[in-house]
Amino acid sequence: MTVLIFDFDGTIADTLATIVNITNRLAAQYGYPQTTPERLKYLRTLSTGELLAQSNVPLFQVPFLVRRVRQELRRDMDSIQPFQHLADVLQAFAADGHKILIASSNAPSTINPFLKRHGLSQVFRHVYGNIGLLGKARSLRRIMRHHRLLSEEILYIGDETRDIEAARCQGVAVAAVSWGFSDRTALEAQGPTFLVDTPEDLYRAVAEFHRSQWRSSMVMGSKRGETAETPSYVHHGAD
User: Fold this and answer.
1) N or C: which end of the chain has fewer CB within 10 A?
2) Which region holds residue 191: left if phi is over 0, alpha if psi is between -120 and 50, else beta?
3) What is this structure's pTM?
């Protein structure tokens, strides 16, 4: 079995421009500079820790700022779309029999209507939300315990360096997508299992991960004198 755990903002939903607009509106209230296009380009090269250190927001205020951004984002979600071609790839993953979850800092009350609006509700088995900015590793561990998952069953998919760090902390393989917040160079520096640039690349990465699982099960079955099951994965294009 392959379990795919997706981040939401910047991985499924193209929220970056909206979030920048929201944080710029709140800049005066929270005492940090507005983000220009030039500064955004620089911020995308930073790790999450570096980003927090340069945010000029006192740490005690960060949870309040994050909560406010979530509230503002919920009001703007009707204008936000999934990344191009990603919905088709998500549907293909579901058709291939993968178990698919979401683990996000965003709220389920924001995520679920988005999924329903774009015909993706049936793709995801469960949505875990309201995860703290630096709490993804802990949340992944809880999800693994709740669903009785082994680390080798899981591929985590996210767009930020903190996603890679969280997955690594739990011994989980990770596919980093370059179409979200962190730029390709910053993601590559963290050494993800896969680094993908398009949804079609992600489809191929998941297929490769699934095949590696099957090969491992064949080896283990051979060692036990058992016959390994035929994999359920069937390749088809994701146009």
Assistant:
1) C
2) left
3) 0.87
Asked if 59 and 52 count as a contact pair (C-beta separation under 8 A), the reply is yes
Q: Which of 228, 159, 162 is nearest to 197 (CA)?
A: 159
Query: Distance between CA 206 and CA 218 in Å, rounded?
Result: 18
The SS3 assignment for 80 reads: coil
CA-CA distance, 114 to 92, in Å (whole number)? 19
Q: Give the tokens for residue 217.
A: 């099960």
Backbone angles phi, psi at 186, to 5 degrees: -65, -40
- Name the token pair of 38: 């030039």
Cα 135 to its chain centre, rounded Å, is 14
**Residue, of 239 and 74, whose pLDDT is higher:** 74
Q: Per residue in 159-175, pLDDT tens?
A: 999 999 999 999 999 99
Residue 227 predicted with pLDDT over 50: no
Rounded CA-CA distance 157/160 in Å is 10
| Angle (nearest 5°) at CA 192 between 125 and 189 | 140
Q: Which residues are the active-site residues?
A: 7
Place of tokens 């051979």: 222
